[in-house]
Design brief:
The protein has 124 residues and is mostly beta strands. Helix content is 0%, strand content 57%. The chain is built from no helices and eleven strands. Strands 2, 4, 5, 6, 9, 10 and 11 form a seven-stranded mixed beta sheet that branches. Strands 1-3-8-7 form a four-stranded antiparallel beta sheet, with no helix packed on it. It is elongated and about 55 Å long.
Length: 124
């Protein structure tokens, strides 16, 4: 069973920074793309950033230049470094990953997994 566990959320003052982590645990072969999403109250879940297995990154316009996604394959962890936080960044942040796992027939499959979410509140 594969799990993604986020950490690093909390209360941050406007203009501050925060680093979120997402650790993948369980039995799997490798991780393809990794992403961060967020969902504010009353709003749809928003894709913020993605990093591929080749370390290619893409960002939503709302966070470009302020957030940085990275990954540490050895530690099975990916990160979202957030700078210049604004009150409108307040949301539950979720990590997401496409993970390759072995099947009982000897083949492999790619499944998509979500973390449980971590609350980030930007307020003075």
């Amino acid at each position: 069973q594969v799990h993604l566990v986020e950490s690093g959320g909390g209360l941050v003052q406007p203009g501050g920074s925060r680093k979120l982590s997402c650790l993948a645990s369980g039995s799997f072969l490798s991780i393809n793309s990794l992403s961060w999403y967020r969902q504010a109250p009353g709003k749809q879940r928003e894709l913020l950033a993605t990093i591929t297995s080749g370390f290619r990154t893409t960002y939503a316009d709302s966070v470009k230049g302020r957030f940085t996604i990275s990954r540490d394959n050895a530690e099975k962890t990916h990160y979202l470094q957030m700078y210049s936080l604004k009150p409108e960044d307040t949301a539950v942040y979720y990590c997401n990953a496409d993970i390759i796992t072995p099947r009982s027939n000897g083949l492999v499959e790619t499944k998509n997994y979500w973390g449980q979410g971590t609350q980030v509140t930007v307020s003075s």
